Amino acid sequence: MEAQKLQKKVSVSIKINGKVYTADVEPRLLLVHFIRDVAGLTGTHIGCDTSNCGACTVLLNGKSLKSCTMFAVQANGAEILTIEGLAKDGELHPIQKAFWENHGLQCGYCTPGMIMQAYWLLQNNPNPTEEDVRKGISGNLCRCTGYQNIVKSILAAAKEMRGR
Amino acid sequence: MLRKEDPRLVTGTGSFTADIKLPGMVYVRFVRSPYAHAKIKSIDTSKAKALKGVVAVFIAKDVKLNPVPTAWTIPNADLKIPKYYPLAVDKVRYVGDPVAVVVAEDPYTARDAAELVEVEYEPLPAVVEQEEAVKPGAPQLYDEVPNNVAFTWRLSGGNVDAAFASADVVVKHKFVNQRLQPTAMETRAVVAEYNASTDSYTVWITSQNPHVHRLLFSAILGVPEHKLRVIAPDVGGGFGSKITVYGDEALVVYLSKLVRKPVYWWEERSENYHSSTHGRDHVEYVELAAKSDGTITGLRVKVYANLGAYLSTAAPGVPTYLFALMLSGCYKIPNIQAEVVGVLTNTSPVDAYRGAGRPEASYLLERMVDLLSRRLGKDPVEIRLKNFIQKDEMPYTVATGLTYDSGDYAAALKKALEIVGYEKLREEQKRRRNAEKLLGIGISSYIEVCGLGPSKAVRGTGFGLGLWESATVRMHPSGKVSVYTGSSPHGQGEETTFAQIVSYELGVPVEDVEIIHGDTAMIPFGMGTYGSRTTPVGGGAIALACRELVAKGAKIAAHLLDTRVENVVFDAGRGAYLVRDNPQRSVSIQEVAIASYQADRLPPGVEPGFEATKFYDPENFVFPYGTHICVVEVDAQTGQVEIKRYVAVDDCGVHINPMLVEGQVHGGVVQGLGQAMLEHSVYDKSGTLITASLNEYAIPTSVESPKIESHFIYTPSPHNPLGVKGVGETGTIASAQAYVNAVVDALSHLGVQDIQMPLTPERVWRAIHRS
Amino acid sequence: MYPASFEYVSPKSLDEALSFLESHSDSSKVLAGGHSLIPLMKLRVVRPAYVIDIAKIPGLSYIKEEADEIRIGALTTYYEIETSDIVKRYLQALAEGVSQVADPQVRNWGTLGGSLCHCDPAGDAGSCVLALRGRMVVQSKSGKRVIESDEWFVDTFQSALKPNEILTEIVFPKIKGKNAGAYLKLERRAGDYAIAAVAVQISLDSSGVCSYAGIGLTAVGNTNLRAKKAEQTILGKTLDDKVIEEAAQAASEECKPVDDPLRGSAEYKRAMVKVLTKRALKRALERAKGGV
């Protein structure tokens, strides 16, 4: 085993929303901290310390991930999509638009993670039932909305996206 | 109308406190006690200080700070306020009590250093339960609070003894309204920067009331109020837990001066669960007196309220005034007596949590009404209708002293019954009395007091300041409007609602109105957002300021139109002043604004500028009310409960933005259901909090949360400038008992009378099998 | 929230991983999906000096159907398992079991191998593996060995895996006949650990008699448990209400639940094992007969 594998800091390059961020980081640096503090993308939030709340959800290589439950070093070479990467040329993604139109958020803290999980859910299942949606976001906690308008938003987004 | 807040929030470009980055920022971490009760024998910070990347480590003797104030000093209650400091001096009194603070170059190093602080404790016996804590021989938290009794408060109306003496039936019950953890998705955070040249501080903080934080920080730090600028940026929910001014927050501000660098503190969830305030935690002994025809004649309540290890900012007022003043509910109860003992224990501090006293009151009332109806063999609907205050009896002064201004409680109940199909449900329930899945119907007819509040009344309860609200409405020369409000929304959407009010009053497009809140350097003194006051009181202030502005504009318009001011009328729809008998002659409000800044064509006695500031002190509270009905299916073999329907009929007066009103009902209902179904702050005997993470403390997910059928009745508040009542807490005040009444109803044929919240499957199962 | 420091090791092959593990077995932790290990590290309950990331080693994630067995690579995720047609067809209890672990994000990353090595008595996958007689293939520098599921679950958070070994594959026998499974989980809220849960896999021969019986129990013992007596009660019999009732009763007597301040008393959990076993057997029976 080469000695360099046991150094204190490790160089990582992670592509986030199409841009590559390279830094020397401690292995223990959580991916969510890399996204927020190294890449400066603070739209991804932290709401707990036990991998329950889902506020930190991003997509990594196309799979939704609670970014607090991965080290940045594991994500070396990966492609990540965060909330900041959804809108294109100033135009909101249909899911973002649907949340706005259907009052799918109140304080907005859980919202980025909720939207990213909805994005993954609809990629996998473009025509979900209400039950599919409720199960699909069961790893994203919200304390403000009671979920009703979040579910409404996701179903509305699904309908619009199927129509495109 | 869609929300103005949303574009930034759905794109992740909002600015929450933890998102703030300042050059040279250092990171704060608290060292907190692992013991519920212990003497501090020694603290050795040398190893922590020696760690590379550590800037400083402080303990109590290094920081000169005053005790953390309790701002609601209830009178006539023998109130004893113990001295509680931001860092423990010689004793720790709850798990999470801060004993030292580390400042380091990054949060990982701060965490490493915190581990290296060596504290020698001498553990003491701990007491976590309130009735245990008042017994002789119980561990004492403070020498100055004998028997851990912080206050004994009483309220009395009518003649309760006579009512009970002459009663046909007396129903007695003990309720535990269990302790909860508010769990806003955003935990607390503080970023503070000290400016040596002006000896002043800028603080970003997760606060529901920046001026209150500023005032109390000033007291704790010994710094003049005007030297503190406090900014609440985007705040991710509060539910009462961010009203509190905490010692740890004040200490972070102080550190910015000690270390001469911007400081950053972010609360981990486990920290939040230990040291941010908890809610509820009542043990209640309740007696209800009634006639055999179901007329309620008296209510007697004795409560032991667990306040935790120190008296938090508003703590004394929540289980007393905010609770007992509502003990009449929607009913005519001529004789009411309440005694509340506030008890300190070795647990986290307890303060306001969504509803703050009113859920506790409506829970016990609606459960007692159901118990009474079972005792008398009557339908719970009948008992409610019999005892309701009627619409034509308004305004009605209840035995606790409050005067309800308007409302039709019977109409709300009848509407809910019709929507849910009550008669059919009762028939179906009968058919399924021996089925594997039992049907239950739970009714909750609630009323609450909010729109806090008229200052005279509020001050009479010992609250530190009045509960008016401020607004400055300024139209700029270009016709755009800035509103500076003392309200501090953190999810409720008033950036939108307030803009709608201004648009309606001044006739300007909503896009041209900006709402500025949260920054003490920009807004007039404000009392903040809680107690469902933001739209009634904050919005009321804005409406009044707009009207004052319109009145000033009328004088200018009259002058410009060369007529008398009595001849000028403002048409908000057109955003213009018209000559009454010649409406073609008009001048827009924007033209009036420019004229006010040009100031060369102003009538005598009118100053330049086009803005108005109002401090609105409401003449009364507002009293939203309603009936919620919950229909459940109980799996008799496992005790699992499924909500089949949830119908909410609410009257919160005028709706400025119906979409937002309904959103508040949804969120409030689910939080109340959380208490009924899942949530409970559990301590073991040694005072360790077992529910210290979201793995243990279970809040509702999307799967448990029902679809809520939300309906409304509209009775404008007669005294509010907009006719608005509050709605931010009504859902929580209504829902817990709707659920519990439903489950008990499903099992009533088995003789089940009550089940303790949260109704875990096991508790429901035991109720079935005991019977 | 902030783990203690460690050195990160990212071997490119299984051989490299095993070599490093051989010389650092008492100071290393193997990282796969990370959704059990990383939460423990964030709590600082676990503080390895070295973390060996095996997630990128090729050839450890697959679901293969062979003539007489199904082979699942240790790095296969819950999501891949719950959506696999092969697993749904032959290992239905496992498909249904892993679909109820935690939440969708966790299931995207958590692995079958990781769950088995973590050996949490409240882990859902383990009970399914017991019910399906899975065999664990582990490797070390000294070679390969196979551990039967009955031997795998040693104690709470302690599997039969030695410190210098890595679990590489789980092999399930293909069950003959009309086979179906079910996993019923009683939980406080969606995604929670089970109060109690039961995994059932049965098969009916051509005369409708039960020719295979696998029953695994979650969260009612110091490890996942196999309800052997309950299995014996139904094996070789026609599954009618009486036999199912007896099996459910046997399962409730075999389990060893403890009181938990949050998730319930031993008495309740035991009673629920009976209810869930009964319901799971009925559901599996319906499915085996061709229903849903």
Q: Care to describe what's here?
A:
The complex is a heterotrimer of chains A (164), B (771) and C (292). In chain A, 32% of the residues lie in helices and 15% in strands. Chain A has 164 residues and is α+β, with helices and mostly antiparallel strands. Chain A has a 5-stranded mixed sheet, sandwiched between helices. The longest helix of chain A is centred in the C-terminal third of the chain and has 16 residues, at 148-163. Chain A is globular. Chain B has 3 domains: 17-124 and 187-235 and 242-275, Aldehyde Oxidoreductase, domain 3, CATH 3.90.1170.50; 282-452 and 620-770, Aldehyde Oxidoreductase, domain 4 (2-Layer Sandwich); 468-616, Aldehyde Oxidoreductase, domain 4, CATH 3.30.365. Chain B is built from 20 helices and 28 strands. Chain B has a 7-stranded mixed sheet, with helices on both faces. In chain B, strands 7-15-14-13-8 form a 5-stranded mixed sheet. Chain B has a 4-stranded mixed sheet with strand order 18-26-27-28, sandwiched between helices. In chain B, strand 10 (200-205), helix 6 and strand 11 form a beta-alpha-beta unit. In chain B, helix 15 packs parallel to helix 16 (534-560). Chain B starts with 5 loop residues before the first helix and ends with a helix. The model of chain B has no long low-confidence stretch (mean pLDDT 97). Chain C is an alpha+beta fold and 292 residues long. Chain C contains 12 helices and 14 strands. In chain C, the strands form 4 sheets. Chain C has a 5-stranded antiparallel sheet with strand order 4-5-10-6-7. Chain C has a 4-stranded antiparallel sheet with strand order 11-12-13-14. In chain C, helix 5 packs antiparallel against helix 8 (124-131), helix 10 runs antiparallel to helix 11 (241-254) and helix 11 runs antiparallel to helix 12 (266-288). The longest helix of chain C has 23 residues, at 266-288. Chain C is globular and about 60 Å long. The N and C termini of chain C lie far apart (43 Å). Chains A and B meet through helix 2, helix 3, helix 4 and helix 5 of A and helix 1 and helix 18 of B. Chain A: This is Carbon monoxide dehydrogenase.
